[in-house]
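New to this. Help decode the following:
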Amino acid sequence: MRFSILTLDLALFPRQEQGAKLEPLARFIAENNISCVCLQGCAQHRLSPLLAESDRIRQDNAVTIIADQLRRLGLKYNYVWDWSHYGETYYEIGSAVLAQLPILGSAARFISPSEDRNDFRSQQVVAARLGVSPEVNIDVYSVDLSNGEEPLSSQVDQLLLFVDESSDLLAPEPQPVVRRRGRPPRMPPSDKRSEPVRMVYLAGKLAESPEGTIARSLRAAGFGEGSQAVPPATDDSGPWADAVYLRPGLRPTDAERIFSGAEGPVLGGRSGLLLGFEM
């Protein structure tokens, strides 16, 4: 089975005429049949109407627009989103996970010292559990570390704590027990199966020097950097080019930086990253 993951910082890019500006991204996702997309800087206007089925996501949310565009292209993607802080006063800025695979559960948590949404340094990580098969789950975390003055080590520590504690949070809701009258039906003997293997993908603003705080902490926690095979970013991302870390570590079969201006348009604050894996 092939699994591909794309991470991209939209950085409030769409603002006006979002549909037209996000269309190249939707077409790219569809043409490459990407399994999972992690978005950061994914915004919605604070005064836009809420979706009928949501108490949080608004009609002009970037991830909603992308999912609608993909649906018109014949592809169904599921998504989760939560927001961290206001940007330019009127925008609720957050992160999202968009996936073709079923989303079995989701969670979000602040990893920055500040949890005040009026503080631009406040950052949440959004996580989703993707059901690959009865034997394998992939837990994907869309990460956008804060540029505040606090040390990165504290944010990475909170991220790793979230990864460990969310193993149970991401489990699907148990189905209600249906009570029946009379004697319970005889059930055929069943083979007890072990718990599915849990794979963890951290995607987003995680890249710095190979021997920096982030890399050392994640390696110590058992993560391998899947994006090592990708050439360094050549845009203005500097050390903050996106990266993908995995546990257990897998080597990608293919990897490329996208939307950097070298090929195709620039779509955000940092060049995107696309990795493919055989599982």
In short: The chain has one domain: 2-171+195-278. The first strand starts at residue 2 and ends at 9.
